[in-house]
Give the backbone structure.
Amino acid sequence: MLNTAPFHHLYPFTSHWLDLDGGRYHYLDEGPRDAPPILMLHGNPTWSFYYRTLIPDLAQHYRVIVPDHLGCGLSDKPPDYAYTLEHHIHNAERLIAALRLTEITLMVHDWGGAIGMGCAVRHPELMAAFVILNTSAFFVPRLPWRIKICRIPVIGEFLVRGLNGFVRAAQIFATSQPKRLTHDVRAGYCAPYNSWQNRVAVHRFVQDIPMSPKHPTRMTLDAIEAGLGHFRNHPMLILWGDDDFCFTTRHFLPKWRAHFPAAEVHVLPHVGHYIVEDAHEQILPIIKDFLAAKTPGHEK
């Protein structure tokens, strides 16, 4: 069991667990159980810790559910698990079903976009609204060299799993506000990924980026994009860090706008890929106003 004591002051939440075929699936479940649910899905190489600054405030009026994908955070990290997009979607579906969630506001970041929208297109009747944070749910033929390096056979695995290079590099390249990543915050991000074995999913996420049409995850991603039209008239808030080196404003945001022309969009200057780290004080009021105005039954 991971010792969270060194950063408990930053992450003072109660852990919950769902038993899956591949291991125990960790999640947070904060706020009133009868309140409208917000399901927050993280990406790679983060975990539920990423959303910690939004949870306390939102949990005053909403049921805030934040899982760690299998292999990430406080979830189990089985060495022989597939860790594909399809598996992550299925696990999130299992959580939604186990908690009997309906009228969900889905908040997604990084890989959480594909995972969350994968759930959404398969269960559109369960979705009420969306908050999109520097992510994708479609294929864009662009991959930064910093990530390409981590996909090179042998070398990539050594960098990601041996040196923890992906987690540590993200703390440099994914933020435009490095002073916010204090020693304790950096420790919180690194804590679950403290060994070769515990970095297995970090590496598998990198391998699962479907740059080739023949990659098995490409079919899953294309099916997700084909289903996005279900939500063209759903309330959607897009908050975008303009300095993102990976999910760039130029290459990714236009596709979100094309799929959802009625979405409320805010592009934040001097904010990087870790938008919640860089700008949680800016985005929290916007999120609260959006929820209050756009989703029935929500309050500020």
Notes: The longest strand covers residues 127-135. The chain has one domain: 5-294.
